[in-house]
Amino acid sequence: MNTPTRIPAIVLGGTGYVSGELLRLILGHPNFALAGVLSDSSPGELAGKSFPHLAGALGDTAFKSPSDIGALIVREPTTAVFCAAPHGAAAALIDSLLKGAEAAGTKPRFVDISADFRFATAAAYEAVYKHPHGAPQRLAQFTCAVPEHLKSAPTPHVGHPGCFSTSILLASVPLLASGWIEPTLFVSGVTGSTGSGRKPVEGTHHPTRHSDLYSYGALGHRHTPEIAALARTATGIEADYAFVPHSGPFARGIHATVQARLKSPRDAAAVLGMLREFYAGAPFVRVLDTAPRVKDIVASNFAHLSAAANGRTVAVMSVLDNLNKGAAGGAVQWMNRLFDLPETAGLTAPAPGWT
Prior knowledge:
The protein is α/β, with parallel strands linked by helices.
């Protein structure tokens, strides 16, 4: 691909937490230039009003309407389009914009952060989300994978896995690929309140969540089929995931613990060595000798892993930022690849710490 120096970047789904993180990353990216932010509810309103922490960098950037975004995509030879619209709405929106681009002969690249392009078939999507897929004819144009588990996308567009899925897959795919474990994995994950989105609900209401910890959707979370499908794609192994998610009393971050039964005894040193070898070429994954901590990765695109083993039991711990590595940062990582840019472009800022 003949990549321009500054690639026009568009964010769909304007006012949510993930959109704000996308804007933050695009504003600091060496190759993407913010060209438009879609908001159905607030066209014409200054984007900085929704994201005061970005107001100085956004300046007079205002939200655009769908027709404005469509006009931009058909005018530019190529654009980097990040979709943070809700699942159930993203597919139809992307389909409409792609139809316009195809008619005009332009070639946008899409990375969708919703759930709409995470499954290979409409039937698999509909079984989980209980409504028809918005653009089943587009599914073959999207690949879904954690960036560390696929060297390049064989399709023009990508569906990024969910934040829980990313954290669990980073921990479990090496275990499955090694052949060391029985393919039944037990997962406990804790997520911050931003994972529930910007619209206030009981699970994110501060008096409810503060100084508390509780599970939800135990053994029935909707991301479990996605995790199993992506693990199968990455390893060829049919694995059974027993997943219990928890709501944590913090805003950003995920801590996941994956446990499995080893086919033969291994010690922690062997497991850590296997993880380091598996992720030797992954710039955003660090394998630690000590327990990973959420505060060490918040607001960065890095994921930290560690492991313990006792006889025939193994546990791999994984931490990442749900808004960055699990959503916006992972999407930028994929978009870098789609435009043949360095995978790390715009993503190497370290975690701020002490958050």
